[in-house]
Design a protein that fits this description.
heterodimer, A: alpha+beta, Peroxisomal Thiolase, Chain A, domain 1, 2 domains, 9-stranded mixed beta sheet, B: 389 residues, alpha/beta, 18% strand, globular
């Protein structure tokens, strides 16, 4: 039985009220708000967030592969899944790959993971889809987009939703695109691509899998397919297919509260469907984009045993609505800004981050065998590895000790206005970790006024620096809100 | 103590430039100015110098940074660096050479040319790992203020007011110091209303970033007595480096500086001091930030733990108090050209001991203590130098 063993989702904390677009540019504002990845987030960090939520309570060391799907990868050449695998503490003898360039790549990655497992090449594969697409300022596209991620653990036993059928369609209609040198999203005139693309392809795909499986649309509790750029077309297509509104998720609600998250949109909706799914339910899933990938899933009894996931529903309500459009321009590096009168940041030293990859990306520290003190060194003044115990000075007498997933308490903090950061002040905390050990970390996704000695924090994977095309990732902490 | 330096090294001459934004002076000129003053003061020439040490964090490399501007003729010259404590480190090199009997006369110089950088704060602080949290020095010291307030039950208002009084005092002292960077009195309200640099520290909680140089000529006591009737003697010179465990284990409370406490104990032992609050007559401490001065008063046992506020409120550290601190304005107002600061502190104590401090002269100052510190409060190198007649 091959299917989904677990799932998780992620939406950035920051939401921008779309009225702010109107305030900035005039014209028309779409109702609601959109999610905006913070300046230290990108598709990789969001995919790690969703993955962490997905593999919580599972042993990442036992997962045989990681498929990352995005149209907004930080690199044209250099795999992102490999970075994620380190951050998630997965093994190195696994299959990692990036699926990209197509809005349905998240769905394709899921189908490919299904086939990989079914073929016997892996027992389980983690699939994460995330997007952080950028539209040129002042258009409707920047209002309609959102940023987010979803992740699924697929495997061949203990599945919460068995994948019964898959089906795919390829279609070369150029609805949206970014060329080799495009920063911003481009799209063809909407009516044409809706009429000839979405409104034809989605029904074709859904009807195709129904025919292949011999099932009827009435057999499904939920029929999940993502809306196109014009979200109203989702309802139109549903009614043309003769679907019962009760079978549909509320894509308009997602559109109002989050925006269109590209390759993550359909996977996020599947997460939402699974969050409330009951044993025995059948789900029809379709992700579109240059064609469509379709799956039929059947929810199993195991879903009742899966501990509650950090899914989409909860993320929709955990948010900070902010009210200035300029932040979006700044966070996505769309406008040039006057540099702080501070020394230039040093170049990324690739050998140093490579050498310490397990410590930095995997958050591995040590625990002294003599005195039991857990300790972590993020390479501040001295550098890892820890060879001498900070507590009892024993040398080379440690067990590995992972800080990943650990929570902690703010021991002290500052909000530094002098540090040259994208969204000052730089909030720095000294964290006391539950179970022992302390370390300094950047605090992100924070409202400075809410931070106190004693504030509870958790880890979040973030982008630290972009230098000569290299992106440097590390962990920060944020106030615990779940 | 078998290896005590007490009374084995005399200071026979000192010099110090004006500190500030010295746009028209380069590092070499600052060095020559400070050392020339010291030569004249001691009545020696460069030919009398048998070895030299120079402390700078950012502004020079190698002994050449000193031997070249002074055209020292083929003698041993060493550049030392101990973060913001580089000034004391240069003195330590020279003092130990003299105490060991290897040199009769040695020169210690500290200098820094910071204002060529064109930025605020210190240069080069980004020279760390790619995953270092994005802090500045004010941020790291601000976290000590956050914790001090929390640990001793001070509201942010009460804590900031306590710190404000420290800066107000230093500004007042610096008015009568012609070499100080900032020579203007300020009010508590100005301090409290100033822009925040790193919460809870505001602009006036932070010391000046300055250019400058300072120099000391050290000699064996027998030589010193020939050069001047009243040489000043080094009574203690201790240095204490942190294992930096405080950022990894819970033993450190982040409301004091352990290295200052331990360095103080070692220095008091070396100098034979039993009751520092009574025996030390004046102090120049490393007040890079107001909170640093506050906790240093406790670390050096001038005030009881958690009780420095009482002494500050009582004016104990003011010029009219029982133990004047920063009579020259301190790092806060004299300024902080990194490598120069440690020697500048001793320069002020030296002037006071010789009765040459002019309007800010302390009556019968007895022993003076200089406290020089480098790096963050949880992981510093602290140096303590006690001098007296």
């Amino acid at each position: 039985m091959v299917g989904i063993k677990s799932f998780g989702a992620y939406i950035p904390w920051h939401r921008l009220d779309r009225q702010q677009f109107l305030k900035a540019w005039g014209g028309f504002a779409i109702p609601g708000e959109r999610s905006v990845a913070y300046y230290d987030e990108d598709s990789v960090t969001m995919a790690v967030e969703a993955s962490v939520n997905c593999v919580k309570d599972f042993d990442a060391q036992k997962i045989d592969g990681l498929y990352f799907a995005t149209t907004s990868a930080p690199y044209k050449e250099k795999q992102s899944a490999a970075t994620m695998a380190l951050a998630l503490n997965m093994r190195s003898d696994i299959r990692t790959t990036d699926f990209t360039t197509c809005l349905r790549c998240g769905s394709t990655a899921m189908l490919m993971a299904y086939d990989t497992i079914k073929a016997g090449s892996a027992n389980s594969i983690l699939v994460a889809a995330a997007d952080c697409r950028v539209a040129a300022p002042s258009g409707m596209t920047e209002q309609s987009l959102g940023d987010g991620a979803a992740a699924f653990l697929l495997g061949n036993k203990d599945v919460v939703a068995e994948i019964l059928w898959t089906y795919s369609i390829s279609d070369d209609l150029v609805a949206t695109w970014r060329g080799e040198n495009d920063v911003f999203l481009r799209g063809w005139e909407e009516r044409m691509v809706m009429d000839e693309g979405y409104s034809k392809i989605v029904p074709m795909a859904i009807n195709g899998i129904l025919k292949k499986s011999g099932m009827k649309k009435e057999d499904f509790t939920k029929i999940v397919f993502d809306p196109p750029g014009d979200a109203r077309r989702h309802g139109k297509t549903a009614s043309e297919l003769g679907l019962n509104p009760a079978q549909l998720l509320d894509p308009l609600g997602l559109f109002m509260n989050m925006g269109m998250t590209g390759s993550a949109m359909a996977p996020q909706m599947l997460s939402l469907a699974l969050e409330t799914a009951k044993p025995g339910e059948k789900i029809l899933y379709c992700g579109h984009g240059n064609g469509a990938d379709v799956m039929i899933l059947q929810v199993t009894d195991a879903i009742t045993k899966l501990p509650q996931r950090r899914g989409l529903m909860k993320h929709l309500s955990v948010k900070k609505s902010y009210d200035n459009y300029e932040s979006l321009l700044k966070w996505r590096d769309i406008v040039p800004l006057e540099a702080a009168r501070r020394p230039d940041k040093q170049h990324i030293r690739m050998p140093a981050t490579w050498r310490d990859r397990k410590v930095l990306l995997g958050l591995w520290g040590v625990k002294c065998r003599k005195c039991g003190q857990p300790q972590y060194d993020n390479g501040a003044m001295s550098t890892p590895p820890i060879r001498v115990c900070a507590k009892c000075q024993s040398q080379d007498d440690f067990d590995d000790y992972c800080f990943s997933g650990r929570t902690g308490t703010v021991f002290s903090y500052t909000h530094d206005q002098l540090a040259p950061v994208v969204d000052p002040p730089a909030s720095i905390v000294l964290v006391e970790f539950d179970g022992g050990g302390r370390a300094f970390f950047d605090l992100t996704d924070r409202d400075p006024s809410e931070i106190k000695v004693g504030t509870r924090v958790e880890f979040t994977f973030r982008k630290l620096q972009l230098d000569r095309g290299l992106t440097n990732y590390f962990w920060k902490v944020r106030p615990t809100r779940f | 103590m078998a290896g005590s330096i007490k009374d084995r090294v005399a200071i026979v001459g000192m010099g110090c430039t004006r500190f500030g934004e010295l746009w028209d002076k380069g590092p070499s000129e600052l060095i020559v100015d400070a050392v020339t003053e010291a030569y004249k003061d001691a009545g020696v020439t460069s030919k009398d110098i048998q070895a030299a040490w120079v402390g700078t964090l950012f502004s020079g490399m190698g002994g050449r940074s000193l031997s070249e501007p002074l055209k020292l003729q083929y003698i041993p010259v060493t550049r030392v660096e101990n973060a913001c404590g580089s000034g004391h480190e240069a003195m330590r090199g020279a003092a130990y050479a003299v105490a060991a009997g290897i040199c009769d006369v040695a020169l210690a110089v500290g200098f820094e040319k910071l204002k060529d950088e064109g930025g605020s704060g210190l240069p080069g602080m980004e020279n760390r790992s790619n995953t270092h949290y994005q802090s500045t020095p004010p941020g790291m010291f601000a976290m000590m203020a956050t914790k001090y307030f929390e640990q001793y039950g001070l509201t942010p208002e009460a804590g900031k007011t306590m710190l404000a009084k420290i800066s107000v005092k230093s500004h007042k002292n610096a008015v009568s110091n012609p070499k100080a960077h900032f020579r203007r009195e300020i009010t508590i309200e100005q301090v409290l209303n100033a822009p925040i640099i790193a919460w809870p520290l505001g602009l006036f909680d932070c010391c000046g970033v300055s250019d400058g140089a300072a120099a000391a000529i050290l000699a064996r006591p027998e030589i010193a007595k020939k050069l001047r009737p009243n040489p000043v003697y080094i009574k203690a010179l201790q240095i204490c480096a942190s294992p930096a465990s405080g950022r990894m284990t819970s033993d450190y409370d982040y409301a004091h500086v352990e290295e200052a406490y331990r360095g103080g104990i070692a220095a008091y032992k070396e100098a034979g001091i039993k009751e520092p609050r009574k025996e030390i007559g004046m102090a120049e401490v490393h007040d890079c930030f107001s909170i640093t001065e506050a906790v240093t008063m406790e670390d050096l046992q001038f005030s009881q733990r958690g009780k420095v506020k009482e002494d500050i409120d009582a004016g104990f550290f003011e010029m009219t108090g029982g133990l004047p601190v920063q009579p020259d304005g301190g790092l806060k107002c004299f300024g902080h050209p990194i490598g120069a600061s440690g020697i500048r502190m001793v320069y002020e104590l030296y002037l006071q001991l010789l009765g040459r401090a002019g309007k800010r002269q302390i009556k019968n100052p007895k022993l003076g203590l200089a406290h020089n510190m480098g790096n963050e409060p949880y992981a510093p190198v602290v140096s303590i130098c006690i001098v007296g007649l």
